[in-house]
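Hey there, shall we discuss this one?
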Amino acid sequence: MSLIFEKQIQVTEQHIDGNNHINNVQYVHWVEEIAAAHWDFVKHKTEYPKDIWMLLDHHIQYKKQVYLNDIITVKTYPKAPEGIRQPRKVEFYCNGQLVVDSATLWVLVDAETQKIKRLESDWLEKLK
C-alpha cells in the first residue's frame, strides 16, 4: 500500500473569496479534511483504530492562485515520526503544478484517556 492518499476537488463559488480565488482558510480546511480521510482509510490496518489525531502545528505556502471551476488534486502523506509528533505533507496541484504546499505536525491521542500516545518509530512501515 502506498502512503500517498489523494482526491480531486472542483473549485466552486463557496471556495472563492473577494479576490476571485480560493480563500486561504479553505486550504486549511482541506488540509484537515484530507488528513482525516486518509486516517479513516488506513486506521483499520494499525494498532490505533479508535484513536484520534490532534493538530499541533501548521505551515502553508501559497505558490499560485486557483480560480472558480479549476480542478485541484490534493495529495497527502505522512513522513517519519519525530518522537511523539507525526509530520504530514499536503500538496495541492492544479494543471500539474504545485499551487499550495503544507507541512503539519500531529499527535495521536488515546480516545478514552485523552492522553498523547507515543508511536513506534516504524509504525508507518507496517502500512506499506
